[in-house]
Amino acid sequence: MSSAAEAPGPARVEVLAVVGVGLIGGSFAAALRAAGKVGRVLGVGRHAHTLRQARRLGLIDEAVDLRQAAASADLIMLATPVGAMGRILSELKPHLRAETLLTDVGSTKADVARTACAVLGEGAAQFVPGHPIAGAERTGPEAADAALYRGRNVVLTPLAENSLDARLRLTGLWESCGARVLTMEPEAHDVVLASVSHVPHFLASVYMEQVAAARDSDVRMSLAGTGFRDFTRIAAGSAEMWRDIFLANRSAVLSELAEIRQALAQAEQALEREDGQSLYDWLERAALARRLWGSRSGLS
Amino acid sequence: MSSAAEAPGPARVEVLAVVGVGLIGGSFAAALRAAGKVGRVLGVGRHAHTLRQARRLGLIDEAVDLRQAAASADLIMLATPVGAMGRILSELKPHLRAETLLTDVGSTKADVARTACAVLGEGAAQFVPGHPIAGAERTGPEAADAALYRGRNVVLTPLAENSLDARLRLTGLWESCGARVLTMEPEAHDVVLASVSHVPHFLASVYMEQVAAARDSDVRMSLAGTGFRDFTRIAAGSAEMWRDIFLANRSAVLSELAEIRQALAQAEQALEREDGQSLYDWLERAALARRLWGSRSGLS
């Protein structure tokens, strides 16, 4: 009897299939393996070399196609850009076993819920949507890390069709990875994430492209320091992934951007009229809020 | 004969006075000391406890007032918020010796040049304005670090009145701290810094305050991750310092913000009309530019 089989907590997943073995999917597999909560790991992906790398790194045991994954996995983790979800679920559906649990890690949840219900029909009961709030700057299987989810939040946005058992099973597995699991309505999740994740990415990318497009961008970039580095770091992320996120969460992102635009206009007006007191008050509110968040979040 | 006295490069500064012994001023003193380029370090500041701390940390040898600093220092480094420069120069002026070299580390340079000429008159020949491009998130003497300037850019914006000797002397001292020294016109410096430093701070603070002011800010901040952390890090900076920077560099900052506002509107319109190709192209340009900068800058 192996020690893995004796590990406390949720039952071990005999066969896990990860669709998209990059940072997020690969780290989930690695974390479950480290916790002794998984038997065999199958990897599905678009690029053969990525799968070979994932196998070499020990993240997966075997590369398979969606059909094989559907036929043999007890848990299927979809870790692909959200725009690909519909196509993948359609391909999985005909081969899916009734006892298989599905989940995802997409950064938007209302569209994933809609897609799952539309494509899977009654089978949506097997699909518990989720979103781990964890680093996305690095990409690819070589960035995978069994410790990525330790102390991090994972939001589940269960469908009405999900059984309590399915929800608890997934919660337990994420907790085995060291994560803290929260449950939210998909729409509420999307509004919050528009604010704290999607809008920062939007602004950082707008800003980065404006600097890069400037006639004197070379001298600008040569004098950019650590503030620039931090402010623009997220703009280096995958264009494909972020395009999908913005489109999937379009209305919440646009609505947050409208708020930002208004706040920006007010701050600009204070600067235009050289209103030092208003500028100071605004900067001080921002600084205090950021310092408080830094001390509470454990991230800074 | 001490090894410090034998160190190659610029002549050692017998008495250095640092006005404002925080991260930037304290690191300059520490770096010169580590390079064997300074004898005695005097510290001037508004807060007795900061000066006591600077002394305990070995950054300064003695706390003095501006008058004493002017009377005995060979080099006076002004490391205070740019808004305080006029007052400090006025207080120094009556006691300044003709052979004393002055410099500053302010983030804006056209206003510093104007202030120095207006206050010092002919004495402005002794003042060589400068700006080290180095981290400003941490503050206070305990953040000072002799290695802060190693490999970093320092921009000097000499006045027409400065002697070549004064410029070379200051260049040599910054090089002793490990920095690379560039020379620019003050106005050109301010336009570039508006773009790569002041505007990011403005945007990060507008954004941070908008999130903090939201009705549901608690849940927002509890789901904020590493992207949020990086994007907002600069917003924690000193409100006083940044108010002064924005006011001092008002027209360049407003002009850059107008450009950003236009780029933002275009990106928003692409999202509104669900134009995935435009969104992708824009995000990809931003991502490639950021990755290129990261690999070239040595900062990321």
UniProtKB/TrEMBL annotation, chains A, B:
GO terms for molecular function: NAD+ binding; prephenate dehydrogenase (NAD+) activity; prephenate dehydrogenase (NADP+) activity. Residues 14-300 form the Prephenate/arogenate dehydrogenase domain. Residues 250-277 form a coiled coil. InterPro entries: 6-PGluconate_DH-like_C_sf, NAD(P)-bd_dom_sf, PDH_C, PDH_N, Preph/Arog_dehydrog, Prephen_DH. The keyword Ribonucleoprotein does not apply. Pfam families: PDH_C, PDH_N. The keyword Signal does not apply. This is Prephenate dehydrogenase. It comes from Candidimonas nitroreducens.
